[in-house]
Amino acid sequence: IVIYVALIITTLVLLFRWRKLAKPFAIATLIFVAVYGTIDYAVASSVFESSGLSGNTEIQAMMSKYSGDVGRSVIGAFIWVPYFLISKRVKRTLIK
After folding, report:
1. How many CB atoms sit inside 10 A of residue 23's CB?
2. How far apart are the first and last CA of the chain?
3. Alpha helices of the chain — where are they, by DSSP H?
4. What's the pLDDT tens digit per position in 52-92?
């Protein structure tokens, strides 16, 4: 979580200052969120499965919601990473 917060703060500061470094930091943040969320979901699912708690309806509801969050972060990365790489607007905006 600390790495995620540091990446977000650094990316926002760089974006508001129109720095060229904002582009790689934004891409790194998006990829980190997608990978971390996927790994965290897999580990949590494995822990609940091995402990026998996967049949609990509350845990199933929580994991279902969390899988949706992970899916959104992965889809967001698939949309925004190419945008940062290809967009002419990003190239024109991040000039310093």
Report:
1. 19
2. 29
3. 2-16, 22-51, 57-86, 88-93
4. 766 777 877 877 787 888 899 999 999 999 999 999 888 88
Cβ atoms within 10 A of the Cβ of 81, count?
16
- Within 8 A by CB and 6+ apart from 87, the residues are none
Match 């996927």 to its residue by tokens. 38
Under 8 Å between Cβ of 37 and 74: yes
Look up the pTM and report it: 0.80
Please count the other Cβ atoms lying within 10 Å of the Cβ belonging to residue 10. 16
Separation between Cα atoms, residue 24 and residue 22, nearest integer Å? 6
